[in-house]
Amino acid sequence: MIAKVAEASGVKRSDAKKVLEAVLAELGDALQRGDELNLPPLGKVSVNRQREGSGAHIVIAKLRRPKAMMAGAEEGDVSDAEATETEAAES
């Protein structure tokens, strides 16, 4: 992912890595707090529920992507354009 971000943005891989790690850390913190996030072009993320797992905090979130945002998605990548429930575990 770091290589793709560096290529798409035209920055050095080391700079892309720092920014990407900071963004992902803040995203994880925001989800753990239960914040609703509007992240264009990704979509709108809202926390559905949270629970403690063995050695992890589990966040069940919904991702809502308008069809216009999905123009670049490859066929078969997303099963439901309206809302996709994903599970992310944080250590």
UniProtKB/TrEMBL annotation:
| Amino acid composition bias (Acidic residues), ranges on this chain | 74-91
Quote one Gene Ontology molecular function term.
structural constituent of chromatin
Which domain of life, per UniProt? Answer: Bacteria
Does the record carry NADP as a key word? no
Q: Answer yes or no on keyword Nucleotidyltransferase.
A: no
Family, as annotated:
Belongs to the bacterial histone-like protein family.
- Protein known as: DNA-binding protein HU
Q: Which organism is it from?
A: Celeribacter baekdonensis B30
Lineage of origin: Bacteria, Pseudomonadati, Pseudomonadota, Alphaproteobacteria, Rhodobacterales
